[in-house]
Every structure is written in C-alpha cells, then in structure tokens.
Amino acid sequence: MDWGLFFTYLGACGAAAATGAMIQPGAWYDALNKPSWTPPRWVFPVAWTTLYLLMSLAGMRLAQHGGSGQAQAFWSLQIALNTLWTPIYFGLHRIRAAMVVMVCLWLSVAAATWSFFGVDFLAGLMFLPYLVWVSIAGALNFSTMRLNPNAA
What we know:
Layout: H1 3-22, H2 26-31, H3 43-63, H4 69-91, H5 95-119, H6 121-147
C-alpha cells in the first residue's frame, strides 16, 4: 500500500467532504417534500466516509498501474463534480441545476468504474458502492425536484 498516494486521493475526497461539512441541509431542506424512502440524516456521513475511503483506495491502486491515465482522469472528473453538487443543491437551493450536475456525476462515476475494471479489478469493485450511492442520490435529487416544482 502506497500511503502517500492514498492520502493524496483522500485529500481530494476531503475537499469534497468539506463542502458537505460547511453547507448543511438546514431548514430549507427540512421544508422540502421528500419521498418516503429518503434515508435518515445519519446515513449520509456514514455512507460518505466509507465511500471516500474506498474511492481513495481505488485511486491509489490505479495510480500504481501504467496505462491508467484515462481512469485517473475519470477519477478526477468525478471528484470535481462531487465537490460541486453540494453547494449548488444545499447552498444555492438550485435543485434543477444540481440535477444537471448529478447526471454528469453519475456518468463520470459509471465511466470511472468501467475504466477501473480495465486497469485493476479490485479498484473497479471499490467504485461499485459509489455508483449505487450516486444512483440513489440522483433518484432523491430527481424526486425532490418533482415534488417541489416551485423550489427547483
């Protein structure tokens, strides 16, 4: 395990996590109509902590393989979009704009996962829970957009 690489990727995840720590859902989000299957708030930090650790491990593994440039580029794209979503949704209260970012995020995570499998099978496996979580987050974003047409 290359701890330097791991902590570099974890630092990138930490920047994304910082937006979630600085921009809390708050009263605006509490007032939104949400689907009945919305996860309880405590699930989000647990899920994201786990995902960020897996994402960092996957990135570390990729960086140790020659020919992983495209996979690493997808890793970079998804973390940038991940970082962008929270300020748009929770900070600006722009549910529709956040949905556009979410679609791009989902596509980048799917592309990353696919490309990771071509470089390092375990790295691909490590991104599968993230793809599932982003799918749930996208469905939640879409549902809140639909249930709150005036807030979007």
